[in-house]
Structures are given as structure tokens and as C-alpha cells.
Input
Amino acid sequence: MPIHRLIAHEGRGRTKNSLNKLQDDARTAVIIAGRVFVPAEDVQTFVEEARATSYPLAAANPGNVTISFCVEDAATGTVTVLEQWASQEALDRHVATPEVTALLTKWGPRIRNEVRRFQADETDPRA
Output
């Protein structure tokens, strides 16, 4: 029987293995996913600024797993946002940087934000 069949979830971050012993093999990841709608004439500028600001800061944050801003439809100003953070604290550190705060202050009034935050219990993908 594969190992993932032997594990039953027992609350956040704790599981019971086949011997009914608790183990801490799950992590809670924070996923940011959705779309941002920018005026079509500004979509390229927004994505360039978001990438130039967020990518280097996220790379320097050890809690960042991935971050992506992608033009989904330039004609409608639709941008797909996908981020994964190891913890809420890592995401909070990122958002609190002066650079990200300035980006959100500049663009916030000009965009419609349909990005959502999700929490996911992440287990070993090999299981």
C-alpha cells in the first residue's frame, strides 16, 4: 500500500501514520491566486512595475516559494497573479516592505483586485 494511503489527517500540520503515531510532516502554505484588472492602456506598465518590485524582494525572502505576474489578456487589462509563501509571516514581511507598500499605494486605486488568499496543508509530494 502506498504511504499516502496510510496517513490520516489529524488537524493542521499533524498526521497519524499507520502506527497511529502523531507526526509533523505537513506545512501550511499560503497561496495568493487570482486576477487583477488594470486599465488596458496601463497593463504592461503595471506588470513591469510589479515584477521589478516584487520579484527581487520575493527572491530575497526565504519564505517565498514562487511569485508570478502574467498578462492574461492585454485587451481587457487582465493580469494573473500566483504566489506561494511558506507562511503567513513570510507574506506579511513581503507586503510590509516599503517598495511593495509604494506599489500597492500607487496602483491600488486604479485596479480591481480579485486576488484571494488560500491556506493549504502541504505534505511531501512523494507520498
Q: What stands out?
A: The two ends are 11 Å apart (CA to CA). The chain is about 30% helix and 35% strand.
